Amino acid sequence: MTVEDSQVKTDRLIYRPRRLRRTTALRRMVQETTLTVNDLIYPLFVMEGEQQKVEIASMPGCYRYSLDLLLSEVQQAFDLGINAIALFPVISEHLKDDTGTESHNPDGLVQRTVKAIKQTVPEIVVITDVALDPFTTHGHDGLVDDKGIILNDPTVEVLVKMALSQAAAGADLVAPSDMMDGRVGAIRRALDAAGYYDVGILAYSAKYASAYYGPFRDALDSAPKFGDKKTYQMDAANAREAIKEVELDIAEGADIVMVKPALAYLDIIHQLREYTHLPVAAYNVSGEYAMIKAAAQHGWIDEKKVILESLTSMKRAGADLILTYFAKDVALMLV
Ligand code: PBG
Q1: Are strands 150-151 and 53-56 parallel, antiparallel or unpaired?
Q2: 216, 230, 292, 310: which to mutate for ligand 1, most atoms within 8 A of CB?
Q3: Among candidates 295, 321, 298, which has minimal Cα distance to 307?
Q4: Residue 124, helix vs strand vs coil
C-alpha cells in the first residue's frame, strides 16, 4: 500500500473512535474497567501499647496503631465498604529471636489482634501474613543456618505453626508471603487436619525481590540485617517463573494467587489472569505508595488522579483484588 492509498483510506474513514469519547455519558457507557470498593484490601500495621498512632516517616498518612486505636480504624474501613484488611505486626525487639518463636505464640500481637477484630467487626475479612521477617532478629523470612543460608523445610514447619495459630485466633485467610517452596501445601494440609477447612490461603505466589518494599521494612523495622532476599523472592527479570510458581501454589491448594509488587509487574498480573480461573490479587506496595505521596507533596502530580489511574491499570491488567494503603482514600473517592 502506498502512502497515497492509505491517505485515501483515511479520508473515507468510517469508524471514528473519537465519536464515543465525545461526552462524559458516552465515555462512561464504553468504559471497560471499573474500580470498586469491593476490589480493595486494606493493609494495616499493629503495634503494642495503648493510644498509639505513630506515622511511618516514609509512608505519610499510614500509621502503626496500637490495638485499641486499630479497632476504630478497622471499623471505619468497614463502614466505608472495605471488605478486608491485611494485618502486619510491629514486633518489639525483645520478642524477636533467630527462629521467630513469637510468630506462633497463641497470645502474640497478631493473634490477639485477630481475636479483637473478630469481636468488634466480625464481618470484615481478616487476612494474616505468614512470614517470619517481623519476628526474627536477622529480619529474614526464614530460618538461617550458620553460613547465612535460608533453610526451606525447617522454615515451612514454623510457618505451619504460625498459620495454625492465626486460624485458631479467627483469621479468614492466611497469606504466606515468605516464598519458601512447598509452604502452601504444608499449610493447607495442616489447616485441614486441624479442622480449619474454611480458612483460605491467599498465596503471595509471584513475589519479587523488589526495592519497592523499603518503606514497609521501615514500618516494621524488619529490613534484613545481612544479605538480601534473592534466594527466595523472585528475580524481576522473570515472567515464566511466575507462572510456574502459580501452577505450584494452585496444585498445593491456594484459593487466591497474588502478584507483588503491582505497578512494575502489570504484565505478570495479565499473564496470571490468562493462566488461572482463581481470583488474582495485586499488592500495590509501600514503595509505590511512597512515590505517589512524595510527588504529590511537592505538588508535582495530582494525587487523587494518579491513585485512581494506577489502581485502574492493575484492574485492567487483570487483578480482581488490590491490596493498597490507599484503600480508605479510594473508598472515599468512589462514593
Ligand atoms: C514480608 C512482607 C514484605 C511485604 C509484605 N510482607 C516485605 C518483604 O518481603 O521484605 C512488603 C509490603 C510492602 O512493601 O508494602 N514477608
Answers
A1: unpaired
A2: 216
A3: 295
A4: coil
pLDDT in tens, 122-167: 999 999 999 999 999 999 999 999 999 999 999 999 999 999 999 9
Cell numbers found for residue 247: 501452577
Q: pLDDT tens digits, residue range 11-42?
A: 678 899 999 999 999 999 999 999 999 999 99
Q: Ligand 1: does its nearest atom lie under 6 Å from the Cβ of 155?
A: no
Using CA atoms, how far apart are residues 46 and 69, in angstroms rounded to an integer?
Answer: 9
**Ligand 1 centroid to 79 CA: how many Å?**
27
Task: Give distance in angstroms: CA of 214 to centre of ligand 1.
Answer: 9
C-alpha cell at 41: 484490601
Known catalytic residues are: 207, 260
C-alpha cell at 181: 517452596
d(CA 310, CA 40): 13
Contacts for 326 with CB less than 8 Å, ≥ 6 apart: 284, 289, 292, 307, 311
pTM, to two decimals: 0.95
**H helices present in 136-239, as ranges:** 152-169, 183-193, 214-220
Q: Which residues of 311-331 are buried (b: 16+ CB within 10 A; e: fewer)?
A: bbbbbebbbbbbbbbbbbbbb
Q: Contact 43/86 with Cβ under 8 angstroms?
A: yes
Residue whose Cα lies nearest atom 6 of ligand 1: it is 177
Note every long-range contact of 297-303, with CB atoms under 8 Å and residues 24 or more positions apart, other chains counting.
297/60
Give φ, ψ of 6 to 5 degrees: -70, -30
For ligand 1, atom 11, name the residue with the nearest CA: 213
Measured in Å, how far apart are the chain's first and last C-alpha atoms?
A: 51
